[in-house]
Amino acid sequence: MKRKLSDTDWSPTTFTSLPLDPRILQAIATLNYSTPTPVQQSVIPPALEGKDILARAKTGSGKTAAYLLPILHRILTSQDGGNINNGGNDGEAVGGTEALILVPTRELADQVYKVIEQYTAFCGKLVTAVNIARNISDSIQQSLLLSHPKIVISTPSRAAIHFNTETLSLSSLKYLVIDEADLILSYGHENDMQVLSGALPKGIQTFLMSATLTDDVEGLQKLFCRHPFVYKPDAKEEDGVGEVVKQFYISTGEDTKFLLLYVIFKLKLIKGKSIIFVADVDRCYRLRLFLEQFGIRACVLNSELPVNSRLHIVQEFNKNVYEIIIATDENEIMGDEDEEEEEEEVVGGEDGDTVMEGTETESQPKKKKKKSKKSKPRKRDTEYGVSRGVDFQNVTCVLNFDLPTSSKSYMHRIGRTARAGNSGMALSFYVPKPLYGKHRPTSVPSSVHDEKVLERIKKQQKKLDHEFKPYNFDMKQLEAFRYRMDDALRAVTKVAVQNARMKELRAELVASEKLKRHFEENPEDLRHLRHDREIKVVRVQQHMKRVPEYLLGKGKAAGMGLQQSGGSIPFKVGSRKTARGKGKQKGKKVGKRKDPLKSFGKGKKKK
Ligand SMILES: Nc1ncnc2c1ncn2[C@@H]1O[C@H](COP(=O)(O)OP(=O)(O)OP(=O)(O)O)[C@@H](O)[C@H]1O
User: Fold this and answer.
1) Where is the composition biased (Basic residues) (predicted)?
2) Tens digits of per-residue pLDDT, 38-91?
3) Which of the following CATH numbers is that of domain 245-333+380-552: 1.10.10.10, 3.30.559.10, 3.40.50.300, 3.30.470.20?
4) What is the position in ligand 1's atom list of the atom closest to the CA of 416?
5) In angstroms, rounded to a whole number, what is the distance separating the alpha carbons of residues 98 and 87?
């Protein structure tokens, strides 16, 4: 007997128990999704009935499918004349644009577009989608929109531009999604959202999806939703979604951060893929040059890079081509829900940055931006963002080399690991107040310091009943590595960092042109286009790439004491795959329940 969707005591445990179009179920089966996640279980049934949805669910919990599947189903059934069993229709789509999906960043727009491609793999041309946040010329965007795609994915600003020039018609719109709803306004899209809200036809179905429920989300709810079905899991339910991120912090000074980084990556104490978050663009290059001297390759990701390069980096990282990404967290959100008054400014990334291609009419972050005296004529994309929403796959560790400036940002950063049921860890370096002043990154307001943020994160995680523990390296053992770290750090001068930044930007602009031409036609051709090549602005001494045996001495290794106070750490490595980037790594399996930080000394070959 078929259950009525509105039966409240019913929660479907398999996708096939959901009355979704068979073509969608076929696609889901090929993706090996066995069961719907809690947000999908709760949201899909009311969404299929046409209810507005307001859903808050943790990062990596499958919110994208929770809104896409019902929308795709409803579009398909309307194409089939309302008969879902008429699944054989693989003709052309008819009618105008039915769904508008708004996301805050270009990275996210690209990701949602790719997910739609996956979910509609068996739908022929019935569900066409266009991503107008892409870096393509206005005339191409216009011609794409004139083909009346069923779904348009965009940032609010691009959508507003095309709506104003009448290339985007909203008259046949039936579904509106605001993904990462809590972020949309802090990215400065307020005016665009107002423009769009006034243009929407009456009675459309709205989906507000968010990892946190904030005042901004409430505001959007008032503007766009009618009596929505609200999904807010309790902590227990949320923790049932895959693994909780194992979280640790280490108290350190500025130089010791580099020392720790060197030891952690050179000795492969973390196995699998990592994202290292830093405070600004210069720090990206400082770290990359630093690691380069030890033969450790990494890619950088920041708002200054051309959007095609950014998308390609994320794509290749997800295919395990790279092991380490050093990312900035520009457009980082400041202000915790209960501490708005204390933190009024938004950290806007690089000082003196200006707006990049394609963003000429984009609005700026709504809150005040810190101005710098030293103005650098750098360009940056206000629609860049990788700490929010981007589905980095199989990430073992998020390493906060620089602590974020708010607990909200912290939550989104660590959400890049332990996704889709995988496990993961987050390791955060924090600099205690007495050591902080001199080394405060220029992008961080003086009112904010690591200790204050750390306390907020502790409070936040305690509320969520999640452990957030100190990880006490035996710093004495680290000291043996310090002179090498000092050597390497000395070589990474300000000038070297600036040169690397310029050199990389030039290389990526060339790469981006290639990417632009080839992205659609033959992405496989772009394999050779690597983003982690040596920048070579600093002379690399070959001996630095090796770790001498004496540093790996048994006693020293074992004595590193990679124990954290309060007992040993039950750690399960998230990433089952390994990077293909380096030949040596190929095929290595990662122990499932092993603490990656406990294998110190294993840099040495096993007998
Ligand atoms: N039912 C499912 N079973 C297995 N994997 C799933 C399922 N639903 C989604 N996924 C996978 O989980 C990952 C995270 O999903 P998604 O990006 O939608 O999370 P999210 O909740 O939107 O996260 P964020 O808040 O960070 O944007 C994706 O790789 C997706 O393919």
Assistant:
1) 366-379, 574-592
2) 899 999 999 999 999 999 888 888 999 999 999 999 999 887 654 444 444 455
3) 3.40.50.300
4) 26
5) 19
- For the chain, report the end-to-end CA distance as a whole number of angstroms: 61
Q: Is the dihedral of CA 394, 400, 405, 407 positive or negative?
A: positive
Cα(120)–Cα(69) distance, rounded to whole angstroms?
Answer: 10
Q: Are 3 and 10 in contact (CB under 8 A)?
A: yes
Whole-angstrom CA distances from 7 to 4, 10, 52, 237, 343 are 6, 6, 17, 20, 44
Residues forming CATH 3.40.50.300 domain(s) in the chain: 15-238, 245-333+380-552
Nearest to 324 by CA among 266, 368, 377, 367: 266
Query: What are the angstrom distances between the C-alpha of 381 and each of 43, 104, 354, 362, 401?
Result: 33, 12, 8, 10, 23
Domain boundaries 15-238, corresponding CATH code: 3.40.50.300
Cβ(326)–Cβ(287) under 8 Å?
yes
pTM comes to: 0.70
Report residue 206 as tokens.
Answer: 């709205």
Spatial distance between the Cα atoms of 238 and 594, rounded to a whole number of angstroms: 24
Burial 56-75 (b: 16+ CB within 10 A, else e): bbbbbbbbbbbbbbbbbbbb
Give CA–CA dist 381/356, Å, rounded: 5
Atom from ligand 1 closest to the CA of residue 36 = 1
Choice from 14, 42, 61 to test ligand 1 binding pocket (greatest atom count within 8 A of CB): 61
Residues near ligand 1 (Cβ within 6 A):
33, 36-37, 40, 57, 59-65, 211, 389, 391, 393, 415, 419-420
Q: Which residue has the higher pLDDT, 386 or 147?
A: 147
Task: Count CA atoms within 13 Å of residue 572 on its CB side.
Answer: 13
Residue whose pair of structure tokens reads 């969404």 in the numeric block: 47
Nearest to 69 by CA among 32, 103, 40: 40
- CA–centroid distance, residue 64 to ligand 1 (Å): 6
419 alpha carbon to ligand 1 midpoint, in Å? 7
Residue 92: strand, helix, or coil: strand
Q: What is the pLDDT of residue 434?
A: 65
In this structure, is the dihedral angle defined by the CA atoms of residues 357, 361, 367 and 370, taken in order, positive or negative? Answer: positive
Q: What is the pLDDT of residues 571-587, one digit of tens each?
A: 333 333 434 333 334 33
Cβ-Cβ contacts under 8 Å for 182 (sequence gap 6 or more): 210, 211, 212, 213, 214, 216, 217
**If you measure from the C-alpha of residue 180 to the centroid of ligand 1, how many angstroms do you get, rounded to a whole number?**
13
User: Ligand 1 mean position to 164 CA, how many Å?
Assistant: 33
Half-sphere exposure of 299 (CA within 13 A, CB side): 28
